[in-house]
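Predict the 3D structure for this chain.
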Amino acid sequence: MKTVLAVDIGGTTFAAATVTADRAITDRAEIPVGADPTATLTRLIAGFETGGLIGVGVGSAGPLDAATGTVSPVNIPGWRRYPLTGVLGDLTGLPVGLAGDAQCMALGEHWLRPGAASLLGVVVSTGIGGGLVLDGEPYFGRSGNAGHIGHISIDPAGRHCPCGDTGCVETVASGPSMAAYAREQGWAGPDARALAADAAAGHPVARRAFARGAAALATAIRTTTALVDVDTVVVGGGVAAAGEVLFGPLRQALADRGGLPFVRGVTVTPTGLGRDAGLYGAAALAFALAGMPV
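Done. Predicted structure below.
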């Protein structure tokens, strides 16, 4: 059975898995990023036997440059124009395909759960990522960064974003941004995971932080739907694992606003693949690079 190595580069953890052509994960590992992301990546890949594999697919937090194979993740300051495909090629001796982490999540959902003709995948985690499948095909755009909804500016007078703009969705709806807002309102918890637990328990500030983040996400979803007419939005990532704490106010925020019928009719669901959605998409990328249909 032909098998590839799938790699998922996030702001807080790196994950990798071997995936077969019949869409089965046969081995998986995950490592916190740590102080030296390159050392983390090297250690992660060293845990896999790559001799029998046909390729590598990698989804990375962005932005990225698909033409040069470099990445500059907003949440990994030490990597700027980092030659990710070259490094992975040297570590494995295999051809490497690169896309954004949320692009891979969207591609993974489409690969394992076909049916949506046009799909927006959203990752809500340390940052906010997005990826598109349009008319059944992944759409990466000219530079490879299409779908980057976390950097739609929704408030020109808002917070400064590490990307250089102000008021981006990411400054409101990412896990660290929601936690920071809650602390400003008197909440004393350590991180977004604790914030989600408190919101589920009814803590008013925690709930308000999630409602505020969900409203920002809803604006980005409506904007993207108006532009490219997706029929399905799939939301994943560490913060999305909070479940109804996020999806309840997100559905409410979408319902509370008007808009054209095709915008109001978009379906928003949590990912059915959990933390592995991006890995499945990276695997699909590697199989496509090897000339196998996905």
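The radius of gyration is 18 Å.
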